[in-house]
């Protein structure tokens, strides 16, 4: 069977215990070589194994800095990124702790951080969420979204079927020694099952996505005290934004971008780092609603 792995994609691998999931991921990562066939075109890759070898003669920061240099970063940059990822996972206080003395949860944070600090084009995660606390799991969810938004590919195995539910671009199942494919949902088709969603209201410079080009239909008024809008649907440029947001555009040029919460940080970064940057008017998080009395008048 031929398997082509696209860029900017999230691929889920499933299968029963002992079916060969970890073996497949080791092939993806280049840890193992196939006995028949070949793998070509592998980009810069990072891998989180199912079992992290914690008994290594490093501190947490020393290990991450060393792995950063293995990935091609200079020493100061590797140390800077290592420090940032430890802080992001809430493990900054363990920077000087020997790996062998870390708790299982903190060891897993280090295992994940070493794969993320080099910004790989292919990120391979084998049960990477196991052992992480809820806050760290959310950090990893967002890091996955960031890798995809930056054009990378993420391949993952996880025992929890709810992990990144509805966001995978393709699903693969290993059964009876064969790799089977099934149609997976795309981020654009994600529903409420994919988790909470965030609404970002933003205004960009003239001609910027997603409101560049003529409207497909004339503006319509949706309700009293709500701004006139163009219908939600295929909007020029929207498909290129992280999370493939649903977009509604007002006549004043304000866009409401609705995206799964896991992609919200990556989307905000894309808007704010664009040249010229977009102006963010509001960010509406799950469970909150804008005050209708503060809604802009037509």
From TrEMBL:
<feature type="compositionally biased region" description="Low complexity">
    <location>
        <begin position="205"/>
        <end position="219"/>
    </location>
</feature>
<feature type="domain" description="ABC transporter">
    <location>
        <begin position="1"/>
        <end position="201"/>
    </location>
</feature>
<dbReference type="InterPro" id="IPR051782">
    <property type="entry name" value="ABC_Transporter_VariousFunc"/>
</dbReference>
<dbReference type="GO" id="GO:0005524">
    <property type="term" value="F:ATP binding"/>
</dbReference>
<dbReference type="GO" id="GO:0016887">
    <property type="term" value="F:ATP hydrolysis activity"/>
</dbReference>
<dbReference type="InterPro" id="IPR027417">
    <property type="entry name" value="P-loop_NTPase"/>
</dbReference>
<dbReference type="InterPro" id="IPR003593">
    <property type="entry name" value="AAA+_ATPase"/>
</dbReference>
<keyword id="KW-0547">Nucleotide-binding</keyword>
<protein>
    <submittedName>
        <fullName>ATP-binding cassette domain-containing protein</fullName>
    </submittedName>
</protein>
<feature type="region of interest" description="Disordered">
    <location>
        <begin position="205"/>
        <end position="247"/>
    </location>
</feature>
<keyword id="KW-0813">Transport</keyword>
<keyword id="KW-0067">ATP-binding</keyword>
<dbReference type="Pfam" id="PF00005">
    <property type="entry name" value="ABC_tran"/>
</dbReference>
<dbReference type="InterPro" id="IPR003439">
    <property type="entry name" value="ABC_transporter-like_ATP-bd"/>
</dbReference>
């Amino acid at each position: 069977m031929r398997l082509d792995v696209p860029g900017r994609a999230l691929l889920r691998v499933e299968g029963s215990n002992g079916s060969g999931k970890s073996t497949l991921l080791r092939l993806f990562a280049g840890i193992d070589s196939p006995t028949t066939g070949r793998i070509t075109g592998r980009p810069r890759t990072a891998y989180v194994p199912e079992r992290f070898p914690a008994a290594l003669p490093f501190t947490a920061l020393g290990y991450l800095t060393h792995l950063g240099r293995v990935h091609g970063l200079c020493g100061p940059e590797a140390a800077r990124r290592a420090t940032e990822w430890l802080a992001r996972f809430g493990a900054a206080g363990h920077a000087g702790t020997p790996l062998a003395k870390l708790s299982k949860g903190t060891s897993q944070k280090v295992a994940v951080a070493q794969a993320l600090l080099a910004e790989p084009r292919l990120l391979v995660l084998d049960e990477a969420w196991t052992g992480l606390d809820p806050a760290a799991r959310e950090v990893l969810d967002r890091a996955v979204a960031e890798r995809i938004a930056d054009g990378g590919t993420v391949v993952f195995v996880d025992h929890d079927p709810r992990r990144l539910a509805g966001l995978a671009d393709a699903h693969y199942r290993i059964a009876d020694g064969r790799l089977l494919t099934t149609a997976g949902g795309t981020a654009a088709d994600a529903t409420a099952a994919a988790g909470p969603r965030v609404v970002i209201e933003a205004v960009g410079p003239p001609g910027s996505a997603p409101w560049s080009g003529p409207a497909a239909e004339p503006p319509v008024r949706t309700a009293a005290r709500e701004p006139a809008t163009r219908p939600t649907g295929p909007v020029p440029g929207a498909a290129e934004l992280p999370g493939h947001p649903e977009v509604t555009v007002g006549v004043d040029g304000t866009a409401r971008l609705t995206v799964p919460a896991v992609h919200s940080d990556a989307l905000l970064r894309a808007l704010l780092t664009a040249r010229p940057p977009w102006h963010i008017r509001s960010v509406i998080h799950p469970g909150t609603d804008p005050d209708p009395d503060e809604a802009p008048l037509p």
